[in-house]
Write a structure and sequence with these properties.
Number of strands: 0
Radius of gyration: 23 Å
Distance between the termini: 79 Å
Strand content: under 5%
Helix content: over 70%
Shape: elongated
Largest sheet: none
Structural class: mainly alpha
Length: about 190
């Protein structure tokens, strides 16, 4: 075996083991994102359930007033289910962000209706639901930090050379910051 052939074999072996190591690191970081996603998933499901309770309390609303929030809740549940299957999928994260923002816009529009504001002023169940939302969203800040850190580590690894090459080969892409667009209620801020 010539020296040149031996050097090529050694180089190929080094590249192979480097690629395996880079892949394993990316998989480990992807699994960390998935683990940090579980509490986020539970939070968003609890929030959606709270919105459903609001709809049940707001029986004075016409079907056309209720429909937008009901539809956005269905889209949110669908996005949560898809993301539960693939928690480190950039596409599914974008879908969840869109569904979460739409759901919050519909909730805000519903709360702006005069009959809902009147209900909020007199119904203790509605006020309790609002208080529960505020408590949920105050706890969300701690969840957001852990998830954001795992996503940031994953994104840094996916964008670093030479792991970038392995990420492209296996179809891994940087993940969007799921939490910034979903931090919809500031801690301590009362809502109607």
């Amino acid at each position: 075996m010539s020296t040149q052939t031996l050097l090529l074999v050694i180089l190929a072996a080094v590249l192979f083991f480097w690629a395996v190591g880079a892949h394993n690191r990316l998989v480990r970081l992807s699994n960390a994102v998935a683990a940090e996603h579980e509490p986020i998933d539970a939070h968003l499901r609890a929030r959606a359930q709270l919105f459903e309770q609001w709809l049940a309390l707001a029986d004075l609303l016409q079907p056309e007033e209720r429909a937008p929030l009901e539809q956005s809740l269905e889209a949110l549940r669908s996005a949560l289910g898809a993301l539960r299957q693939r928690p480190s999928s950039a596409r599914e994260l974008h879908r969840l962000i869109d569904a979460g923002q739409r759901c919050e816009r519909e909730r805000a529009a519903l709360c702006a209706l005069p009959q809902v504001q009147q209900l909020a002023a007199v119904d203790p169940g509605w006020r309790q639901a609002m208080s529960q939302l505020q408590e949920l969203d105050e706890r969300f800040a701690a969840l957001a930090q852990a998830h954001r850190a795992s996503v940031q580590q994953f994104n840094e690894a996916v964008c670093e050379f030479p792991a970038l090459l392995v990420a492209r080969m296996v179809g891994l892409k940087p993940l969007p910051d799921l939490l910034e667009p979903l931090e919809l209620v500031e801690p301590g801020r009362a809502q109607s």
